[in-house]
Amino acid sequence: MRTEYEMVLAEETRVVDLPAGEIDQDQIDYIDKVVKLRRQKLEGVLAYGGQWIVTIFDQGESTLKYTIWRRKIKMSLTEGVTGQVSEIIGLHISRNETKHVYMQSPEEGLVQKYKMLCAKNKNWSNIEHTAAGGVFAKQNELLSQDYVFNHLATIVSSGTHYIHTPEMQFTRFYDTMFSSYGGIVADVTMRLENRLRWCFNTIPYNSDKGENGNTETYQQLKRAHPVLDAISGPLREALNDAYEKHLGGDTPASYRFGNTDEDVWSKAYLLYKFDVISAMKDY
Fold first, then answer.
1. Distance CA 54, CA 141 (A)
2. How far is CA 85 from CA 57, 64, 81, in A?
3. Is the pLDDT of residue 268 over 50?
4. How many angstroms separate the CA atoms of 283 and 278, rounded?
5. pLDDT at position 25 over 90
């Protein structure tokens, strides 16, 4: 903002310093009606030191109406609300209103589009294809695939754990999803995430019931609703660290991944399981 102020001030000073014979009425009017007013506004903001502008919505109202000024266009949006601000309005008012400073990344745009579709009770089958190229078309192309849409359901419902990984960088995510193994990645992610969620629910476990009791508990777990808030960020980081330590990266086990006939894999996987159990107990 200070840079903009200095540019406006320089423009005003340049015109003021011109010889009287070189200044026409249009320049004078422009300085008085545009440049000077902009300079005064910027001076006021800079002198004040900045401020927060907060909009408060009454959840008790049956109708919520607010007016948004954006790019000098006045927009009114009215939504029926019963007890809470609707998800569609929440997504709209949470959008970054200073994109000229903080640009939305392609992956953030993909997630935002997914959330908006869900808020409108739409899915992959409702995506409108566009002839235009670029990121917008690729986002729609991804969202129009059923397995990608379901994959995003797993990712978004898991907080920020997956979204902030290198695999979610847009170009890499796009290439992976449309590769020969994209569907496999989506399916395995969903299955493993579901098994993690089985560990955090309200189903009681009784070890005294024996094998039949374990079978019954297993069926209950498959139908149980997970307590997602209990799966903390630090826990996910600990589990990820355990994987990278024993099975990931350039570890010896990574070159024999899943080969139960190899002692290197079997021993590494056993150590990995111990670390996972230890992390689950700690968190």
1. 36
2. 8, 8, 6
3. yes
4. 9
5. no
Which residue matches tokens 């978004």?
156
d(CA 196, CA 157) in angstroms, rounded, equals 13
Q: By mean pLDDT, which of 54-68, 191-205, 243-257 is the weakest? A: 54-68
Comparison of pLDDT for 172 and 39, the residue scoring more = 172
> Containing H/E element for 265?
helix 263-282
Give ∠ CA 31-36-38 in degrees, rounded to 5.
120
- Check residue 83 and give left, alpha or beta (phi > 0: left; psi -120 to 50: alpha): left
42-66 pLDDT tens trace:
777 777 665 566 666 555 544 444 4
**CA pseudo-torsion sign 262, 240, 148, 153:** positive
116-119 long-range contacts, Cβ below 8 Å, gap at least 24? 116/88, 116/91, 117/143, 118/87, 118/153, 119/86, 119/87, 119/88, 119/91
Residue 166 to residue 172: CA distance in whole angstroms? 8
Relative orientation angle of helices 106-119 and 146-156, to the nearest 10 degrees = 100
